[in-house]
Design brief:
Elements: E1 8-15, E2 18-25, H1 26-34, E3 40-42, H2 43-50, H3 54-65, E4 72-75, E5 86-89, E6 99-101, H4 111-140, E7 142-144, H5 145-155, H6 162-174, E8 178-180, E9 187-190
Parallel strand pairs: 2-6
Antiparallel strand pairs: 1-2, 3-5, 4-5, 7-9, 8-9
Helix pairs in contact: 4-5, 4-6
Amino acid sequence: MWQHTLTQCTLKAVYPKGKKEIGVSLFQTVVLLMFNEGEKYSFKEILQYTGLESNELKRTLQSLACSKIRLLTKEPQSRTVNETDVFQINVNFTAKALRINVNAVQVKETKQEQQKTQETIFRDRQYQVDAAIVRIMKTRKTLAHNLLISELYNQLKFPARAADLKKRIESLIEREYIERDSEDNTIYNYLA
């Protein structure tokens, strides 16, 4: 799958005060290349020309016209981009360095999106957790719950929550890889 937001481009620009090499994202490149054809564009014209989503274009224009490195100027001047704004190349742009990187404005995930992402990642890693549990239990034969969790934290190369590890242990009990000790529920036995 192509990740457009991770694409990096280098543009060569000629300003009255010298040449610059500018490192920008793909979306920033598409917007900046528009200004080879004309001097001034409204938000709606840029939106129509680039075909970007409105929110994505707002973030892109904000990084080009409202950040420390202002390759574009906007009217009216403010920290936010509105659909009524007009943009043009900043002919007064200066920088000491020949190469300049313009960072894109990052999208912040909501709590729900972060939680969903974490669940998806753990679902992808559940087989690694299962394999680690079986490996530990195969060598130890019998082990207490707290010791098993401790061993898992030592073996796993990624952070995991105890609740998720417990779910994987329960899954292995259901699939009869391990069982609870008949006398003490906090001890697990490996089934060969």
